[in-house]
Amino acid sequence: MTQHLPILIVLCPLAAALVVPLVARVSARAARALTMLATLSSLVCAVAALRVALREGDWHYHLGGWAPPWGIEYVVDPLGGGMAVIVALLATLVSLYAGPHVRGLSSLRGAAFDSLFLLLTTGLLGIALTGDLFNLYVFLEVSSLAAYALLASGGERAVVATFRYALIGTIAASFYLLGLGYLYALTGTLNMADLAIQLEAVPPGSAMTVGIVLLVVGLAIKMAVFPLHGWMPDAYTYAPPPVTMFIAAVMSKVSAYALIRVLFFVLPAGDAVETARAVLSWVAVGGVLAGSILALAQTDVRRMLVYSSVGQMGYIVLGLSIGNAAALTGALLHVVGHAAAKGCLFGAIGSLPRQTVQAEIGGLAGAARRAPLAMAAFTIAALSLVGLPPTAGFFSKWYLLRGALDADAWLFAVVLLVSSLLGAVYFFRVLEQVYFVPDPSAPDTDVPSPASPPSWRMVVPVLTLGAAVLLIGLFNGVLVSSVIQHALPEL
Amino acid sequence: MLALLGADRPLAAVLVSLAAAALIRLVGRWPTVREACTFGAGIVKLGLVLSMLPTVLDGGVVESARLTLIPGVTLHLRADPLGMLFALVASTLWLVTSVYSVGYMRAGRYPNQTGYFASFALCVSATIGLAFAANLLTFFLFYELLTLATYPLVAHNRTPEARAGSRKYLVYTLTAGQALLLAIVWAHSLVPGGEFRPGGMLPAGVPSGTVWGLFGLFVLGLGVKAAIMPLHGWLPAAMVAPTPVSALLHAVAVVKAGAFGILRVVGYVFGVDVLRDVGADTLLAGLATTTIIFASLRAFRETHLKRRMAYSTIAQLSYIVLGAAVGSVAALAGAMFHIAAHGFIKITLFMCAGAIYTESHRDDIRQLAGIGRQMPITMGAFALASAGLAGMPLLPGFISKWNIGLGAMSTGSWVFVVVLVGSGLLNVSYLFPIVYDAFFRAPHGTVSPERPSLTVPLAATALVALLLGIAPNIGVGFYRLAWSAATSVVGGADAGGLP
In principle, which of A258, A288, B165, B481 could form an S-S bond with B85, CB 3.0–4.6 Å? Predict the structure, then answer.
């Protein structure tokens, strides 16, 4: 059993996705339990596999016993394995968080929801673990199709918004596939490790350049890197809360992971990659600033959070375009920290009883009394995105700053700090409503009002993520020296 | 539990009030239990700080364990003379202010007292943490925690005015925090680990451009909390907070954190000589003297008692900055002693202002005629503290000024002596008319009798101020701590003044 751990990580949710609709015909509760069990066992497998990989070196698993480059290979290394743990952890928490939402649906729709959610998880885990670029494309499409369906389940406006996302997402996937086609034509292989070796021998030429450009642009759209983020605000705003929570937390991170994998582990170092990184650095600066400024302009909290994601993805891209050890550490730590923080923020907002159709900032007045725990977690996550100590966001900013200064890139350092300040403005605007503006409908006392507190199923995941943001910050040294350091490419 | 507290006393001193903050939140329903937590933690914390005092007075330091935060950079606390001095001031005054707060908040029937006391405890944790911080990152962590913990206190009254004040406060302090962060990351790329070292941590041969840039960022980052003009705008605006908040945070914790930070940076990051070589000490001295003069003049224009005191605080803080800029042993000792001297004096003045407001609901200077006869203890303490602020002999303000002046003379900077004397005269002229009116003009209107929960703390701090002025080493030896810190920074080259 244990020698098959890498594939079990992906198989658990996939198998459950197929079975859940059948089980739901008998018992909706059993279907829910199965969903949670599947994500949890995937998490357990991912953690176990990562531990093995950290102890004994990268774990190469040959699917069906076919040796690469002919067969498909799964690789658990610190980078991919770590990513799989993040995805599985978020999936486990969201499968619990989704309980109240699924209960509100008919048993058929509930089962469809869980099944799609598991498929999405499968796709994201597959991207993190596969060692084959074409297999990565397949999982990219599996996750995207599941995501379209889930996002569209939020009502009429969600359908329109998702349609736009589906169009752009498909274009992005086609770019990726086309780029991959060029590389395949040049080398005749799709295995990442093999491709990296073969590409070294290929002289730089226009075919390779076009391939690289297509790959990078395709993944950048999936990441919603500025200015390719247009599809994201509507798609995330109108989706059901558990969907937004999961997708906002991990989906763009997984694409960021794919970009890091391609840029640093597959493509040969050379002019084309250098140019791509230089372009990405300016794109990142634009994204960091534009995301923060657009977030300021929003009156709907969820849209504000989406634009803040555009800015935060800019941090990650900035880190990998600076490309030294400190900056890459910062980028990877930010992948972890931002996944937890964004999941926590969307989760906390989604757990509040909805007062207005759009989650207006003004509607959060007095939310600290109605949902003190969820709002406490919200505050911690918000502080992390602003980059205040001792949260995860502060430490990733520290590494990024250090990387920028090591590279003498003062402009990037200043951009990071300015973006922090803009973040402070838009988050404290919300926190002021939450804590200092009295709820118009509740009396002003020291005792929290008992009226409809959020379900524990929603509060526990949100609190877990809030605590995770703090712990990742305080123990970032452990995380960096035991995992992230080993996940860095050789520079 | 006790063994745990004893094992790592600097860390325990920080954690006690952190734990108290959480506990206060939990038992918020029962005000008596809640207040007991505050007092209990206050006493334990003071005890912990005092238990480290003998070692520090004997020239030693008490170190905490190093906890790795970032590979190569640790969370590390160390009780050295300068940190000890600040920690003693903060933990003593927390206890005093807690007594006062209970009286003030209950008398005024303020809402959200649980949040108030929890934030208060958090602030004191942060203050002790930054006092004992042994390296730049630890300092920064607590510096930012202090910003966050004070924000709800400034906004405590929840009125639009309070929210606007707190917003202004955040904009200033968070912006400064980012400048400080950049400075600290930069310093780390020059000095791995960024550990404070008496006399300076920078390696030899750092180009003067780098020193200027780094120093500029540090002054920008710390100057906001130290309220160096023109970075002082938040301080008068933050006076919308309840008076005990103004008292502890805007006379002791927040503003002193900035001034303390300047002392740390001048003495323990750059070293006086490095700054003198590039001429950065002149910039700092220029900023400080400008602030002293303009803030003192500006105080005249305020008729709101607390706002006038805010400008007086701005001027007094720059005494500390000036002492750091002059950089001789006497001047540094004077500046360090001024942390304690100004702390006790200014908290007395603020507590007097709060007592006046509680008993008479007056906060304008023009309404205070004759109030000295109705509130003799309060106004007596006010008069004493005013004299102390102006730098009258036998009061602690004199000792710090004397030393800073002496230091300035030894470096030949007569202009600073003139500024100090002039500022003393300005102090007299904006505070003594209040005292005169209070005692020698006819009272009007009714005033509730003074309540002991307010008068006892303020009389106590006034008394301590008086004792410190007569015998500056009394009790815990603030003056010895200041001298030993100053000597360690400069190396005992030009000792002088009152030993």
Answer: B481
Q: Which residues of A touch B29 (CB under 8 A)?
A: 446-447
Distances (CA, A) of A330 to A191, A317, A401, A404, B225: 28, 10, 8, 10, 29
What is residue B495's predicted lDDT score, i.e. its pLDDT? Answer: 43
Short-list A469, A458, A440, CA closest to A369:
A440
Cα distance between residue A381 and residue B98, in whole Å: 31
Query: pLDDT value at position A450?
Result: 46
Instruction: Write down the number of H helices and E strands in chain A.
Output: 22, 2
Asked if A106 and A28 touch (Cβ cutoff 8 Å), the reply is no
- Do A83 and A254 meet the contact criterion of CB atoms below 8 Å apart? yes
Counting Cα atoms < 13 Å in the Cβ hemisphere of A406 gives 18
First-residue to last-residue Cα distance in chain B: 41
The beta strands (E) that lie in B258-387 are given as none
Q: Which helix (H) or strand (E) holds A450?
A: none
Name the B residues in 363-392 with CB < 8 Å from any A CB: none
Q: What is the complex's ipTM, to 2 decimals?
A: 0.90
| Size of the A and B interface in Cβ pairs below 8 Å | 79
What pTM, to 2 d.p., does this model score? 0.91
pLDDT value at A90 more than 60 = yes
Rounded distance between C-alpha atoms, residue B411 and residue B437, angstroms: 41
Q: Give the HSE-up count for residue B173: Cα atoms under 13 Å, Cβ half-sphere.
A: 28
Q: Domain limits of chain B?
A: 339-499
pLDDT tens digits, B97-156: 888 888 888 887 777 888 888 888 889 899 999 999 999 999 999 999 999 999 988 888
Q: Which among B69, B158, B178 has CB closest to A420?
A: B178
Task: State the Cα–Cα distance between residues B187 and B156, nearest whole angstrom.
Answer: 36
DSSP H helices in A202-270: 206-223, 232-237, 241-246, 252-260
Domain locations in chain A?
A: 269-491
Which residues of A fall within a CB distance of 8 Å from B112? 446
pLDDT tens-digit map of B171-223? 999 999 999 999 999 999 898 888 898 888 888 888 888 999 999 999 999 99
Taking an 8 Å cut-off on Cβ atoms, the answer to whether A388 and B170 are in contact is no
Instruction: Check residue B493 and give its pLDDT.
Output: 45
| CA distance linking residue B69 with residue B66, whole number of Å | 9
Residue B317 has φ and ψ, to the nearest 5°, of -60, -35
Q: Do B155 and A432 touch (CB under 8 A)?
A: yes
CA–CA separation, A415 and B182 (whole Å): 11
pLDDT (0 to 100) of residue A65: 84
Integer-rounded Cα Rg, in Å, for chain A is 22
A46-65: average pLDDT: 91
Q: Which of B114, B163, B185 sits opposite A436 (nearest CB)?
A: B163
Q: Looking at CA atoms only, how far is residue A389 from chain B in angstroms?
A: 6
Surface-to-core class of residue A93, CB atoms within 10 Å of its CB (0-12 exposed, 13-18 middle, 19+ buried): buried
For the residues B240-251, what does the mean pLDDT come to?
83
Interface contact B141-A389, CB threshold 8 A? yes
Of A388, A402, A414, the CB nearest to B189: A402
Q: How confident is the model at residue A447 (pLDDT cuts 50, 70, 90)?
A: very low
* CA atoms of A74 and A22, how far apart (whole Å): 30
Can the peptide bond before residue B230 be classed as cis, meaning omega within 30 degrees of 0?
yes
Instruction: Tell me the helices (H) and strands (E) count for chain B, helix number first.
Output: 21, 4
DSSP state of B269: I
Mean pLDDT for A203-224 is 90
Task: Choose the weakest-confidence range: A202-216, A440-454, B229-243.
Answer: A440-454
- Say if the Cβ atoms of A436 and B158 lie within 8 Å: yes
**Neighbouring C-beta atoms of residue A66, cutoff 10 Å:** 11
Spatial separation of the C-alpha atoms in residues B129 and B42, rounded to whole Å? 15
> Which residue, chain included where needed, has tokens 């509930």?
A110
